[in-house]
Amino acid sequence: MTKSDLVNKLAAANPQLMHREIERIVNVMFNEIMNALARGDRVELRGFGAFSLKKRDARKGRNPRTGESVSVDEKYVPYFKTGKLLRDRLNGIEE
User: Fold this and answer.
1) Are strands 49-56 and 43-45 parallel, antiparallel or unpaired?
2) What is the number of other CB atoms lying within 10 angstroms of the CB of residue 33?
3) Quick check: 71 pLDDT over 80?
């Protein structure tokens, strides 16, 4: 599902709202999640899951084309851990 698919699905389920309003709501939500992660905060959506950051230490890597050794700087990567409700639904367990 793409962001536009999500907006279209929400618009179909909420005909009282204008399409551009729903698009703005979705954009604000995603931007707030990105801003929170950029600040180093954790974002938890109960039942769905939690977004957080994981630190990857600096390391020596290898250029696959030349085989040359290169240094890779430390970096932070986004991490998503599913919530129990989502995990159960994916495994066919309904509550």
Assistant:
1) antiparallel
2) 15
3) yes
Helices within 1-95 (DSSP H only) = 3-13, 19-38, 84-90
- Tell me the residue length of the chain: 95
Q: 53-62: per-residue pLDDT in tens?
A: 999 999 999 9
How many Å apart are CA 67 and CA 31, to the nearest integer? 39
The structure tokens listed for 77 are 């990567």
Which 3 state secondary structure label does DSSP give 21?
A: helix
Rounded CA gap, 51 and 18, in Å? Answer: 29
CA distance 30 to 38: 12
Which structure tokens are listed for 35? Answer: 């801003």
Contacts of 6 (CB under 8 A, 6+ apart): 26
Q: Sorting pLDDT into bands at 50, 70 and 90, what band is 95?
A: low
